[in-house]
Amino acid sequence: MTVNLNRTSIEEFILQAPEWRDKYVEGNVCAFKVEAFVQRNWGSPCLESRMCRGSFRRVEDIIEKLKGKNDAIKPEDDMEIVYRWGGGFGPMLFAKIMNNNPIDEIRNQTNAAFSALKEGHPVRAMELFRSLKGVSYPFGSKVLAMRSPWNAPIWDNIAQTTLSEFTIGGKRVRSYEQFIVFCEHIADGLRERGIDPPRGERWYLRDIEMALFQFGWDNGKFNGRITGELP
Of 141, 170, 175, 227, which alpha carbon lies 20 to 30 A from 112's? Predict the structure, then answer.
């Protein structure tokens, strides 16, 4: 499937979203291993999924390293695996966060953000998380999305670049809050059309964001194709 982004309406994207999401998953099954690790204290919906049964050495090596720590449920462990999975500058950015914030503040703000997520407030969660020095929207939203994929999509440069082609109510998507509204709009459109969600009883906003990522990637926004363990 090849689509010119400049000629694709939101309505067309809604119909294409399931296929784009499935294609993303084909190249990123390891993401579900990361998600399951981060959600382990909540009872992950992915733990029994076929998505977690494969072998993904790089992710499993990170998990084994974190499990070897004295305290296996520190919130910074959840941050570390996501930042390492994200690749690129991820490990360096994680180290910067750990070096520039008191550990008690990191744990307090991260736990407060996770609590806000659990209460259904992803925008508030992002605000709490970003109060830490060095937490950006791209990697901050990755941590939130792994913890709560049903209501917290990843708001990174890829999403922002692709969303520049769309408007909601005549307005560009310029903020994390507006991005959530966009994903909810797509999810509502899928439900109204009777298109079954890939997991659970409803479309997760993370699944909508996966579709958006792949949609933009395959249409030449990022000079390549999704491979291996790209977030």
Answer: 175
Whole-number CA gyration radius for the chain: 17
pTM of the model: 0.84
The pairs formed by 85-90 with CB atoms below 8 angstroms and a separation of 24 or more are 85/30, 85/31, 85/34, 85/58, 85/59, 85/142, 85/229, 85/231, 86/139, 86/142, 86/231, 87/229, 87/230, 87/231, 90/139
Q: Which helix (H) or strand (E) holds 34?
A: helix 30-38
DSSP tally for the chain: helices H, then strands E:
11, 2
Q: Which long-range contacts (CB under 8 A, 24 or more apart) does 2-11 make?
A: 2/218, 2/219, 3/215, 3/219, 4/219, 5/162, 5/165, 5/215, 5/216, 5/219, 5/221, 6/165, 8/165, 10/166, 10/168, 10/185, 10/186, 10/189, 11/189
The per-residue pLDDT of the chain, averaged, comes to 82
- Residue 13 in tokens: 């994207």
Taking the CB of residue 12, how many other CB atoms lie within 10 A of it?
A: 11
Inform me whether the pLDDT recorded for 179 exceeds 70. yes
Q: Over 90: is that where the pLDDT of 216 sits?
A: no
Count of Cβ atoms closer than 10 Å to residue 10 Cβ? 14
**Burial of 26 from C-beta contacts in 10 A (0-12 / 13-18 / 19+):** exposed
213 within 8 A of 24, measured Cβ to Cβ:
yes
Tens-digit pLDDT profile for residues 114-166? 999 999 999 999 999 999 999 999 999 999 999 999 999 999 888 888 887 78
